Automatic annotation (TrEMBL):
It comes from Candidatus Hakubella thermalkaliphila. InterPro entries: Poly_Biosynth_Transport. Keywords: Cell membrane, Membrane, Transmembrane, Transmembrane helix. Its main location: membrane. The chain crosses the membrane at residues 12-35, 41-60, 81-102. GO terms for cellular component: plasma membrane. This is Polysaccharide biosynthesis protein C-terminal domain-containing protein.
Length: 161
C-alpha cells in the first residue's frame, strides 16, 4: 500500500476515532449529569476545569519533535519518554501545590477530584503513553493508535461514572 493510501486510511481512522470519542464524551456527560445531583456535577466540572488549566504544561510539542525526527535513536526515544514522565510528575506536583489555594475558596471535594485527575493524567497519551503513541503516529499506524486511544478514553469515562 502506498504512502498516500496509508495517509488517507489513517486520516479516516483518526476522524472516526475523534467523532466517536466526542459522542462518547457527550453521552457520558449526560449520564453523569443525570446520575449526580447538580452540586456534585458542579464539583466534578470545577475539578476538571482546574485540572485542564494545570495540565497544559505537558503540551510542549515533544511528541511532534519525535514524530518528525527521521530515524530517532533509542537514546532519543528514552529521552522523550523521560521528558513526558517528568512533565507529568510536574503537573502532579503543581496540582498538589495549588490544591490548598483551591480549597480556600472551594469545597474540599473539588480538590479531591482535581488530584485524582492529576494522578490519572500520568497514564494518558500525553503522559507515559506519549512515546508509544508518537511512534505509532510516526509509522502511520493510525488504526492501532485509534484503538488504543478509544479504549483509554472509554475506560477512563467508565471510571468517571
Amino acid at each position: 500500500m502506498g504512502l498516500a493510501q496509508r495517509a488517507v486510511k489513517g486520516g479516516l481512522y483518526l476522524t472516526v476515532n475523534y467523532f466517536t470519542l466526542f459522542i462518547l464524551g457527550f453521552v457520558s456527560n449526560i449520564i453523569l449529569a443525570r446520575l449526580l445531583r447538580p452540586e456534585h456535577y458542579g464539583i466534578f466540572a470545577l475539578g476538571l476545569f482546574f485540572f485542564d488549566i494545570v495540565q497544559r504544561i505537558r503540551l510542549f510539542g515533544f511528541k511532534s519533535a519525535l514524530i518528525h525526527k527521521k530515524e530517532p535513536s533509542p537514546e532519543e526515544i528514552s529521552t522523550h519518554f523521560l521528558l513526558h514522565l517528568i512533565f507529568s510528575a510536574v503537573v502532579i506536583l503543581l496540582c498538589l501545590l495549588v490544591s490548598p489555594l483551591i480549597s480556600i475558596k472551594y469545597d474540599r471535594a473539588i480538590v479531591e477530584v482535581f488530584l485524582v485527575l492529576a494522578l490519572i493524567c500520568l497514564f494518558d497519551n500525553e503522559g507515559l503513553g506519549a512515546t508509544p503513541s508518537a511512534l505509532l503516529e510516526k509509522e502511520l499506524r493510525y488504526r492501532e493508535f485509534s484503538l488504543i486511544n478509544f479504549f483509554w478514553h472509554s475506560s477512563s469515562r467508565r471510571l468517571r461514572l
